[in-house]
Amino acid sequence: MTPTLARVRDRLALPARSRFTATLRRGLWWGVLSLTGGVERRGRLPRGGCVVVANHSSHADTAALLAALDARHTPAIGAAADYWFASPWRRRICRRLAAGFPVRRSGGGMDDLLSMADELRAGRAVVLFPEGTRGKDGELGSFHRGALVLAERAGVPVVPVGIAGTDRLLPKHGRLRSALVRVSIGDPLPSAAGPREARDAVVALHARTVAEPLKDSVTRRRVASVVTSRWGVPLAFVWALAEALSWPLMPELLLGVVCVAVPRAALGMSLGALAGSLAGGLLALQLASAGVHLPAPLTTDRMRAEVRAELALEGASAVRHQPWNGIPFKVYGAEAGRAGVPALDWLTASATARGSRTLTVGLGFAAFGLLMRRHRRQYGRCLVLLGGGFTAGLSLIVNGWS
Fold it and tell me: GO molecular function, one example (predicted)?
């Protein structure tokens, strides 16, 4: 059979609906794992059906494999019948979200496995955890023969896969936390391989995947060292306070730099920046009401006229326009002081307006940082793009209000 005919046979062997469902399932788990730290794959499955054998230390292993394996193989996951199929709701979750099929662990399991032989011949990938249960402390247990027997009966190869990071992402009996997940796909095993050879191949892949360092940017590491030190939140506070008085660079620029570098610090840095904005805005109001005129670079007379008109109509609540119209917060603070807006009213209104913007921006950049976690080495380029976008946006705003 020619390669072209083989490819056509593989495409026709599995229903288009199954491939579409597998594509949706892969997108779902890729998205979930991207938000929890990222997922990275090395290697590919061979064309056609195969039995995948992998280490098992976490319930997140299934999500990692569904996110990493090609949807054209419509992967099916062998799941413990006494756990995942013991109740209707677990059965639905297992079948719909994990493409699971039941495998009995107390008699009849081999028959359950052999029932998948025809699907393997049609080009499907059947994923099995030969340990039979989740391991502890990264140690792999002994492998059962079922996967090898199934592959031999169906006439398909056995492919070892090493999974790393899921034991940190979702430890056994532990809580979900952020971690990068790596899936390393090895070469198909010889047809004469036994359980020990399969286990050794998975152990080697797992060890190599764990040992491989995550490529990082020196700049990101330096930024992270500052953000995670005792100076991180005070820096956000002082930056935002200064911007509310006179400093031309908005705190959202700082949040973009630090939250992409250290997503877990986003909430603390955002709250620090919000506190600094409120303190600076209140101080700007008091100074302006006392007749003090602070420098206000990158602002225009038209901005000040617009803010005066809004304050005359709406009072302190006029600051609700600030997150969207591009006028710096310091203009609102100074003009509110000159208009005699009560300090308490101003603080309440500005907390809502600034809070919605600052927290949204900080958490948004944190989500982007999680998505980019496996590309940390590109952090310097992210800074260049962020700086260029900020400069272009600021120029458009100033020119638009000139």
Answer: 1-acylglycerol-3-phosphate O-acyltransferase activity
